[in-house]
Design brief:
Keywords: Signal. It contains 18 helices and nine strands. It is an alpha/beta fold. Strand 5 (146-148), helix 8 (156-164) and strand 6 (174-176) form a beta-alpha-beta unit. Helix content is 46%, strand content 19%. It has two domains: 26-113 and 230-313, 3-Layer(aba) Sandwich (D-Maltodextrin-Binding Protein, domain 2), CATH 3.40.190; 116-228, Glycine betaine-binding periplasmic protein, domain 2 (D-Maltodextrin-Binding Protein, domain 2, 3-Layer(aba) Sandwich), CATH 3.40.190. Strands 3, 4, 7, 8 and 9 form a five-stranded antiparallel beta sheet that branches. The N and C termini lie far apart (52 Å). It has helices spanning 3-17, 42-57, 69-78, 91-95, 97-101, 123-127, 140-143, 156-164, 180-192, 207-210, 220-223, 225-228, 240-243, 245-253, 258-269, 275-285, 288-293, 305-313; strands at 33-38, 61-66, 83-89, 105-122, 146-148, 174-176, 199-203, 213-215, 230-237. The radius of gyration is 23 Å and the shape is globular.
């Protein structure tokens, strides 16, 4: 037997003895770095950081970059960001339709159902008669013709509403753009002084637990029916599923629920925990989530993912 034949036999034998899961490790080397978009929203802080912790335990190197919503879609299109966990539908469908139509972004999962997203007021304002978008003009003076929103790029339905003077709006209404934290601070000050205020509200969020509030009706044109009833999807950039099938499988599995997100967000916003501490605490309180999230998912080097993550996070 010559050396070449012997080498082929040895190689074939080694291949037969190799662990079966090694053949499944299909992510390209460049997939080790996983770039997530962060909009500064507490829900994304929780979900991004949850993904970050699990990916780190799988041997990947995740990172988060703070971006405005419009820049997030541009960054996915340009290949500068890999994953976005905050595609709220239907509110983003029209404004960012071109990115879906040209294939720049690819939905891989609906990561949350039962969400809502529309204008809200403190309950005492609602009881005072402001119950609908159509009531805004009636109480314009009490509201100082201001609607409080969040980050620029996120408030377009409200900006369009004011510009077109929908719902009978007159005069110079202003959409105050700032951030989630700044908006909620403004709302809290108004509540403490029993002042009138209208603001962008959503669920899941601790505001629904920590504040006596109500959502306005008749905003279907701006935010969709059922008080802006929404689902949230996970998007990846074009080409990512083929290049990084293992990571894509993980994000396809990563599905949350309203109670989970409300509890985790409350730890951040009310209890003052860092996002990582809250995410770790939620993971350890709900180890059953990992079973679904890591189904058929491997570590970066091809080992079974669930066992690796549980060992890294000391979860039984």
């Amino acid at each position: 037997m010559n050396r070449t034949a012997l080498a082929l036999i040895v190689a074939a034998g080694a291949a037969c003895l190799a662990p079966a899961h090694a053949a499944l490790a299909a992510d390209a080397p460049e997939c080790k770095a996983v770039r997530l978009a962060d909009l500064g929203w507490t829900d994304i802080a929780l979900t991004n950081t949850t993904a970050e912790i699990i990916l780190g335990a799988l041997g990947y190197e995740p990172s988060q970059t703070m971006l405005a919503l419009n820049i997030t879609f541009d960054s996915l299109r340009n290949g500068d960001i890999d994953v976005f966990l905050g595609n709220w539908r239907p509110v983003q469908d029209e404004d960012y339709r071109v990115y879906f139509d040209d294939g720049s972004v690819i939905p891989v999962a609906t990561n949350l159902t039962g969400a809502k997203y529309t204008l809200a007021v403190p309950k005492y304002v609602f009881d005072g008669g402001l119950t609908s978008f159509d009531d805004l003009e009636t109480f314009a003076d009490k509201l100082d013709r201001k609607i409080y929103g969040i980050e620029p790029g996120t408030n377009k339905p409200l900006l369009d509403m004011v510009e077109s003077k929908a719902h009978g709006l007159t005069g110079d209404w202003e959409v105050v753009e700032s951030s989630e934290a700044a908006m909620l601070a403004q709302v809290q000050r108004a509540v403490e002084n029993r002042e009138w205020i209208v603001f962008l509200g959503w669920q899941p969020h601790p505001m629904n637990v920590n504040m006596d509030m109500a959502y306005l009706s008749d905003g279907d044109a701006e935010f969709g029916p059922d008080f802006g009833g929404a689902t949230v999807r996970t998007l990846v950039r074009k080409g990512y599923p083929g290049q990084c099938p293992n990571v894509t499988a993980f994000f396809g599995n990563l599905v949350f629920d309203i109670d989970y997100e409300n509890a985790g967000m409350n730890m951040i916003m009310t209890d003052g925990l860092e996002a990582r501490d809250a995410a770790e605490k939620m993971l350890k309180a709900h180890p059953e989530k990992l079973e679904a999230w890591l189904k058929d998912v491997l570590t970066f080097d091809g080992r079974p993912g669930l066992a690796a993550v549980k060992a890294e996070l000391s979860i039984q």
